[in-house]
């Protein structure tokens, strides 16, 4: 069963494209998606740029791999609400055909490239959400009724059929906006010129090596070739000199002047023509749009490899954290009922992402256990290991006694007339 097989019968058919928020096909038709290099820029062409693919793949994969839980508030803190119908949908299986990783990765890929990430919410007779199905952004057009202010979406299936849906049917991860309208600031639009230059530089390099003649030098012959000889030369030129496999060969040419043959060296250095620098800069430029550290797109030129843990923390706080908070709040808005939002919330678990080396992890656990923050079972749970009976007791450094026992001893000493810190005797004679 696919997405468009589960669209409910109550959806109504709608035609038309608003001029205030035109579809991508209309933008392309009017030339709005063409960069100054003359290259049309859209999601399909952008993702073929190596730097864009690396950024989108890295961010979407890392976010999709993070454990995502639905939590509920309890007397002390919170716990996973595994019995809520939304929990399994966001955590491991949104629908019978899609894993949570696959579902969220498609949401993030669409969001990063278009500014929107959509999903259809299938409900049972009681109104509970029982399945989530991805919808590609280019299949959805947001609208708003100018008279009532009511928002709705037009979803177009693969056969061109259009169906009208309301916010209660659609999960929508929406990007940055200038104003209250439904239009978002799209990556494709703000990065059009940078992407156009990246594609142009890549295409130039490909054509440079595939069609150009890359010579090591020229041998000039003192005389003119006859017609037959010149024809043979012309026919065999590209076979002998064009392409990467023929780079560096020496070309033989005729000369109309008299004298001995002479050799003319030819220089052809891409680095001197600044092609390499241009492509390096475009990688940095694309990474800036995604706020992604360069080492995450495999650019290690300025990486020291001595600060891996700090790099992970920086990547989490400067890049991933905003996306994490954004989706946590979107899930609360779109997948929970108003009365459920008071005690339930979505939460990503980033502890595994922040793990340091083995020694640093051991020191951290040791400290947290000794100051009574973690119990042994807490540590085992963080390491995905089974706890043991009695392992839930919290102890304090030094005495290594249970916290509640330490409090009882302190309280008993106070009652017997000890000092406020639980030591000494207030009745000692002067």
Short description:
With 430 residues, the chain is α+β, with helices and mostly antiparallel strands.
Structure, explained:
By secondary structure, the chain is of the alpha+beta class. The protein has helices at residues 24-29, 43-46, 50-65, 86-91, 100-114, 187-190, 192-210, 227-241, 275-290, 308-335, 358-370, 376-382, 403-415; strands spanning 68-73, 78-80, 116-123, 129-135, 140-144, 151-156, 162-165, 170-174, 215-222, 249-255, 262-265, 344-348.
Could you name the key traits of this structure?
alpha+beta; three-stranded antiparallel beta sheet
Mind sketching the topology for me?
Elements: H1 24-29, H2 43-46, H3 50-65, E1 68-73, E2 78-80, H4 86-91, H5 100-114, E3 116-123, E4 129-135, E5 140-144, E6 151-156, E7 162-165, E8 170-174, H6 187-190, H7 192-210, E9 215-222, H8 227-241, E10 249-255, E11 262-265, H9 275-290, H10 308-335, E12 344-348, H11 358-370, H12 376-382, H13 403-415
Parallel strand pairs: 9-10
Antiparallel strand pairs: 1-2, 1-12, 3-4, 3-8, 5-6, 6-7, 9-11
Helix pairs in contact: 3-5, 3-9, 7-9
């Amino acid at each position: 069963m696919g997405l468009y097989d589960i669209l409910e019968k109550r959806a109504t058919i709608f035609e038309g494209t608003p001029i205030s928020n035109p579809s991508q096909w209309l933008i392309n038709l009017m030339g709005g998606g063409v960069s100054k290099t003359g290259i049309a820029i859209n999601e399909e062409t952008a993702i073929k740029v190596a730097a864009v693919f690396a950024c989108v793949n890295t961010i979407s994969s890392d976010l999709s791999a993070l454990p995502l839980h639905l939590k509920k508030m309890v007397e002390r803190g919170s716990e996973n609400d595994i019995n809520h119908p939304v929990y399994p949908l966001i955590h491991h299986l949104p629908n019978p055909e899609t894993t949570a990783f696959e579902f969220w990765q498609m949401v993030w890929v669409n969001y990063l490239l278009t500014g929107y990430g959509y999903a259809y919410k299938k409900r049972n007779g009681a109104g509970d959400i029982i399945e989530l199905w991805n919808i590609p952004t280019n299949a959805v057009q947001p609208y708003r009724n100018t008279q009532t202010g009511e928002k709705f979406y037009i979803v177009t299936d693969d056969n061109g059929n259009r169906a009208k849906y309301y916010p209660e049917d659609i999960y929508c991860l929406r990007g940055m906006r200038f104003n209250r309208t439904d239009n978002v600031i799209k990556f494709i639009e703000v990065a059009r010129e940078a992407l156009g230059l990246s594609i142009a530089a890549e295409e130039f390099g490909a054509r440079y090596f595939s069609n150009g003649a890359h010579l090591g030098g020229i041998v000039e012959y003192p005389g003119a070739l006859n017609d037959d000889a010149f024809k043979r030369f012309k026919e065999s030129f590209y076979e002998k000199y064009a392409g990467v496999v023929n780079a560096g060969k020496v070309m033989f040419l005729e000369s109309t002047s008299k004298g001995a043959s002479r050799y003319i060296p030819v220089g052809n250095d891409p680095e001197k023509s600044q092609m390499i620098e241009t492509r390096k800069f475009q990688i940095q430029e694309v990474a800036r749009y995604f706020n992604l550290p360069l080492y995450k797109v495999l650019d290690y030129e300025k990486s020291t490899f001595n600060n891996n843990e700090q790099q992970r923390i920086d990547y989490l706080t400067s890049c991933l954290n905003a996306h994490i908070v954004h989706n946590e709040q979107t899930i609360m808005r779109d997948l929970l009922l108003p009365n459920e939002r008071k005690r339930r919330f979505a939460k990503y678990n980033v502890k595994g992402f922040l793990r340091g080396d083995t020694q640093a992890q051991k020191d951290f656990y040791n400290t947290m256990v000794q100051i009574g923050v973690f119990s042994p079972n807490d540590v085992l749970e963080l390491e995905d290991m089974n706890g043991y009976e009695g392992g839930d007791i919290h102890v304090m450094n030094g005495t290594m006694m249970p916290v509640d026992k330490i409090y009882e001893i302190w309280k008993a000493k106070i009652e017997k007339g000890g000092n406020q810190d639980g030591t000494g005797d207030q009745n000692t004679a002067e």
